[in-house]
UniProtKB/TrEMBL annotation, chain A:
Residues 1-24 form the signal peptide. Keywords: Signal. Pfam families: SBP_bac_1. The keyword Signal applies. PANTHER family: ARABINOSE-BINDING PROTEIN-RELATED, BLR3389 PROTEIN. The keyword Signal applies. This is Carbohydrate ABC transporter substrate-binding protein (CUT1 family).
TrEMBL record, chain B:
GO terms for cellular component: plasma membrane. Signal peptide: none annotated. The chain crosses the membrane at residues 50-75, 111-131, 143-163, 192-215, 253-276, 300-321. Residues 106-321 form the ABC transmembrane type-1 domain. CDD domains: TM_PBP2. It is found in: Cell membrane. It is a multi-pass membrane protein. Residues 1-37 are annotated as: Disordered. Pfam families: BPD_transp_1. It comes from Flavimobilis soli. This is Carbohydrate ABC transporter membrane protein 1 (CUT1 family).
Length: 435, 339
């Protein structure tokens, strides 16, 4: 979950220690029962990325409750620092020592692993009530009509803002198009706060701006065809880059946004919102939790509100469409099949998903558990999400690591003034050459 | 402190120290060979195998093997899952040299290499000469200059990064002392960022050069200066005719280390700028390019090809340097070995 980027570099030492223990612990007899007969004792190795706090407690509790309910299946939990997860997982998959259950975000990255035959097809393992409860969120984990992962959280994006600062600045109604957003930006400049916080150092927060401009500029068909074709020739992609470039020229972002982190400190973009130094931020639904960690009293920001990304003039996208990520878990191809399926279904029950939503301050994938959401900003996101005509996955996730990374880099170059709107589109074609 | 420096001197090859050691080495084996004791020879080989064996195995396993594997993977389009299957020949290498971002990175490495030598070399010699004088608080100043070298790159990078960002301490300080016009984008303005990097690199690594040069200075016999003084040489004449020539081997070794370090620079850049801003701010290096395009973009085959290019460039420069610059320093040692 991107939310855990907040642990960032400060936890590098802890991550190293974790890495070492993880290596030491890999002699678990994990996939020895490869056939998956549930008769004998089975141990599931399980990798997630919540190294601290309620998230870590949640997974530890799931593991022990699952074993209590299913004697004979043990779950060996390893919490791995978010930034280390990709590399460790890749090494583990390559060396044939993959964890049985691991965190995944779907999209192109998962498709690569599926193509390499490293992930278990769980289509037939999902319980019917879980299938009904989760619904369309399975799309993010589906490749060629088969499901390769269990979504645990939905994380749609939009504008988080400070109600107090908006009031101080005299912004009476929430912006629904870019004229109104521009108006809000100048009013916020008037009260001497950064209008929009942006943590551009990691690139993806800046790239999200481009994704949303693209979501509004491009038609539903273009967005739907993107993962298969990776084709950026439709003029709407360039139009989106131009629109972002024009918007950036009005200087709506915090000073020095290129060297600003997204999470982790008071000076990060989330921290600026938490400390009332910035009016708004474009982020995913993990943001209330991240901001809560960065407020002076470490409590959720009381005046945090949410509104959808504004409509773009002449755009072919539905202004009510949403973009977001899905967090979930996949089983490796060698995992004991039945045990793995049982574990995935176990933590997807209504009660366990409610606990999940509370532990991570986020939106659970099981719609039956969504009643526990109390955070007003999250309630607004959820209401909009449930009404959205269609939902796209973050473009970098959707396009896979290589193209996604290049797209992010192209956006940063344009915002830094060393690239151009054409360069954003070109970065994708250049990256495809390396793939 | 000066004792430790004295010991270091031996490794940084003062002329007379080396020849003394060389003579000893050539004398020792010849009597043994004359005795013709095959047993002794055999025992010696066993001893060498036992003592050097583990190191050789480690070297093969952790240096040579990865280099060979990188060269192999560099011929594939490979996303890193499962064994590579998509053989593309030299395509990756062609793409590398056509990629403007790689050309930029190469230029930055070259700039850093030259500027490191130009800035740090003279400054370190001057500092070493200064600190070689008898003066109050000399040890303290030596320690202070050396401290940045000891601090880890991660901490240096994080600290400087925080101070120099747009809303950081440096700009804040400039505003506080009434110079708001002097505040600039130290890290993200392409005209400034590479100089910012040079300042940080110089701050960090100059202590290492100073310590090396101080060690070299200690090995220059005092008598030479006394003789020169009797002949009526001025201070500057002494430095030019005695200090610099006799410090030459140390300077050349330091320059070698500095060149290799400049070519492989990664951590400072990656921590302060990150992958993306390093590209836009003009501080990217071949190593940050390699990690960005390989590990972070998931093009492992391509990344391995970049690693090979970086290796070949470094090796070529190192060999040329050894052949043409270090030859004077190693010439004696090599002939002695052949005897």
């Amino acid at each position: 979950m991107r939310a855990h980027k907040l642990l960032g570099a400060t936890a590098a030492v802890a991550a190293l220690a974790l890495g070492l223990t993880a290596c030491g612990g890999s002699d678990d007899p994990d996939s020895t029962g490869g056939g998956g007969s549930s008769g004998g004792d089975v141990t599931l190795t399980f990798w997630h990325n919540s190294t601290t706090g309620p998230g870590k407690e949640y997974w530890d509790r799931m593991a022990s409750e699952f074993t209590a309910a299913n004697p004979g299946i043990k779950v060996s939990v390893q919490a791995i620092q978010n930034e280390d997860m990709d590399g460790k997982l890749q090494t583990a998959l390559n060396s044939g020592d993959a964890p049985d259950v691991f965190m995944a975000r779907g999209g192109g990255k998962l498709a690569d692993i599926v193509e390499a035959g490293q992930v278990l097809d769980i289509t037939d393992l999902i319980d019917d009530d879980v299938k009904a409860g989760v619904g369309p969120a399975f799309d993010a984990f589906s490749v060629d009509g088969k499901v390769y992962g269990m979504p645990t959280a939905i994380l749609p994006g939009g504008m988080y803002y400070s109600k107090d600062l908006f009031e101080q600045a005299g912004i009476s109604s929430l912006p629904t198009n870019f004229d109104e957003l521009g108006d809000a930006v100048s009013k916020l400049k008037g009260i001497d706060v950064a209008p929009i916080a942006l943590g551009g150092k990691a690139a993806w927060p800046a790239a999200h701006w481009y994704y949303f401009f693209a979501l509004r500029s491009c038609s539903k068909e273009v967005m739907e065809n993107l993962p298969g074709t990776k084709d950026f020739s439709d003029p709407c992609w360039l139009a989106a880059a131009n629109a972002l470039n024009d918007f950036a020229k009005t200087e709506p972002f915090n000073e020095g946004f290129l060297t600003t982190e997204a999470q982790g400190s008071a000076g990060s973009s989330a921290g600026m919102l938490a400390n009332h130094l910035a009016g708004m931020e474009l982020m995913g639904a993990w943001n209330p939790g991240v901001i809560a960690d960065l407020t002076p009293d470490k409590k959720p920001l009381a005046d945090l509100g949410w509104f959808p990304f504004p409509a773009v003039d002449g755009g072919q996208g539905d202004p009510a469409a949403m973009m977001g990520g899905v967090d979930g878990y996949s089983c490796s191809a060698k995992a004991p099949k039945e045990a793995c399926g049982k574990f995935l279904n176990f933590f997807m029950s209504k009660e366990n998903q409610e606990a999940y939503a509370e532990a991570f301050v986020t939106l659970p994938a099981n719609q039956e558990a969504q009643g526990v959401i109390t955070d007003p900003a999250l309630q607004d996101v959820l209401a909009t999400y449930n009404k959205a005509p269609y939902v796209s996955v973050w473009l970098d996730t959707l396009l896979g690591q290589n193209v996604g990374n290049a797209l992010n880099a192209g956006v940063v170059e344009m915002l830094a003034g060393s690239g151009s709107p054409e360069g954003v589109v070109k970065s994708v074609t250049d990256a495809l050459a390396k793939e | 402190m000066s004792d430790t420096l004295g010991e270091n001197t031996l490794t940084t090859s003062p002329p007379e120290g080396r020849s003394a050691g060389g003579d000893g080495a050539t004398k020792a084996p010849s009597p043994a060979r004359k005795r013709g004791a095959g047993g002794a020879d055999w025992a010696k080989r066993l001893e060498i195998t036992l003592l050097a064996g583990p190191a050789v195995i480690m070297f093969l396993a952790f240096v040579i093997f990865p280099v060979v594997m990188a060269a192999y993977y560099g011929f594939f389009k490979w996303k890193g899952f499962g064994p590579p299957t998509d053989f593309v020949g030299l395509q990756n290498y062609i793409t590398i040299f056509q990629d403007e971002k790689f050309q930029d990175a190469l230029m930055h490495n070259g700039f850093i290499l030259v500027m490191s030598l130009v800035i740090q070399g003279p400054a370190a010699v001057a500092l070493a000469l200064l600190l070689n004088q008898r003066m109050r608080g000399r040890s303290l100043v030596r320690v202070l200059i050396f401290v940045p070298y000891v601090i880890s790159e991660v901490i240096v990078g994080t600290g400087w990064g925080l101070m120099l960002k747009t809303t950081g301490a440096v700009n804040h300080f400039l505003i506080r002392i009434g110079l708001p016009d002097w505040t600039v984008e130290w890290l993200s303005d392409p005209k400034i960022a590479i100089w910012t990097l040079m300042v940080i690199i110089s701050w960090k690594y100059i202590g290492f050069a100073v310590i090396l040069f101080l060690a070299g200075l200690q090995s220059i016999p005092e008598e030479l200066y006394e003789a020169a003084a009797i002949d009526g040489a001025s201070y500057w004449q002494m430095q030019r005719s005695i200090t610099l020539p006799l410090l030459g081997p140390t300077i050349r070794i330091w320059a070698f280390l500095s060149i290799i370090g400049s070519l492989q620079l990664f951590d400072l850049v990656f921590i302060i700028w990150g992958q993306y801003v390093a590209t836009t701010a003009g501080t990217s290096t071949m190593a940050t390019y390699m990690v960005g395009e390989g590990r972070l973009a998931g093009n492992y085959g391509y990344g391995n090809a970049v690693a090979v290019v970086l290796f070949v460039i470094s090796l070529t420069i190192a060999l040329i340097y050894q052949r043409f610059v270090l030859r004077r320093d190693t010439a004696g040692a090599l002939t002695e070995g052949k005897k």
